[in-house]
């Protein structure tokens, strides 16, 4: 049985932030069975994660500009139904609030009828230029987290 929430969420914490993107399965992404090869799901998930981070002002470039990298530590995918060539799917990304210096995101890929095709999650850690693990959020992210706690975050 697939979990509907990969991350425990206390009601006392701010609600997850969400962004959707749409992608169409391309010919080069399918396998001999005519379905999307499992390794390409990561690029669908990445598109949603990038769109969410950019819409919040905490995208890859924002971290990079402040000397921080955010490598993926974990990626888990539950393949529920195959994705087919030429079909367009919605990929929803949700970022979960964490006091720890890590980005916890889950993802849902839906077909045009809203049926859940795939569920996934990723965890990203923060490292500095010397590749040392950061245990606290960088200064530039603190206004974002304050606004999230206050419920005033704007998603672009």
In short:
The protein has helices spanning 41-56, 60-65, 142-150; strands spanning 17-24, 72-79, 88-96, 102-110, 116-125.
Q: How many distinct helices? A: 3
Low-confidence stretches: none
Task: Write down the Rg.
Answer: 16 Å
Query: What is the 3D form?
Result: globular
What string gives the helices and strands in order? EHHEEEEH
Overall strand count: 5
Secondary-structure arrangement, i.e. CATH architecture: Roll
What is the rounded distance between the termini? Answer: 34 Å
Q: What top-tier CATH class fits best? A: Alpha Beta
Beta-strand fraction estimate: 25-35%
Q: Which fold does the CATH topology refer to?
A: Thiol Ester Dehydrase, Chain A
Major sheet description: 5 strands, antiparallel
Q: Whole-number average pLDDT?
A: 95
Helix proportion of residues, in percent? 10-25%
Number of separate structural domains: 1
Order of the strands making up the biggest sheet: 1-3-4-5-2
| CATH homolog superfamily | Hotdog Thioesterase
Structural class: alpha+beta
Summary keywords:
globular, Thiol Ester Dehydrase, Chain A, 5-stranded antiparallel β-sheet
Protein topology:
Layout: E1 17-24, H1 41-56, H2 60-65, E2 72-79, E3 88-96, E4 102-110, E5 116-125, H3 142-150
Antiparallel strand pairs: 1-3, 2-5, 3-4, 4-5
Descriptive report:
- The chain is globular.
- The longest helix is centred in the N-terminal third of the chain and has 16 residues, at 41-56.
- It has helices at residues 41-56, 60-65, 142-150; strands at residues 17-24, 72-79, 88-96, 102-110, 116-125.
- The protein contains 3 helices and 5 strands.
- Helix content is 20%, strand content 28%.
- The chain has a single domain (17-147), classed as Roll (Thiol Ester Dehydrase, Chain A), CATH 3.10.129.
- A hairpin with a 5-residue loop joins strand 4 (102-110) and strand 5 (116-125).
- It has a 5-stranded antiparallel β-sheet with strand order 1-3-4-5-2, with helices on one face.
- The protein is an alpha+beta fold and 156 residues long.
- It starts with 16 loop residues before the first strand and ends in a 6-residue tail after the last helix.
């Amino acid at each position: 049985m697939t979990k509907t929430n990969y991350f425990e969420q206390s009601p006392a914490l701010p609600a997850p932030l969400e962004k959707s993107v749409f992608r169409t399965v391309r010919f080069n992404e399918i396998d001999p069975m005519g379905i999307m090869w499992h390794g390409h799901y990561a690029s669908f998930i990445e598109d949603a994660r990038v769109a969410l981070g950019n819409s919040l002002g905490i995208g890859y470039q924002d971290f990079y500009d402040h000397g921080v990298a955010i490598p993926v530590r974990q990626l888990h995918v539950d393949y529920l139904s195959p994705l087919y060539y030429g079909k367009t799917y919605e990929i929803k990304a949700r970022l979960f609030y964490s006091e720890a210096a890590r980005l916890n995101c889950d993802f849902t890929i839906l077909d045009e009828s809203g049926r859940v095709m795939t569920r996934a999650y990723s965890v990203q850690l923060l490292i500095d230029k010397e590749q040392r693990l950061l245990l606290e959020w960088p200064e530039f992210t603190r206004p974002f987290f304050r606004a999230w706690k206050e419920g005033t975050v704007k998603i672009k």
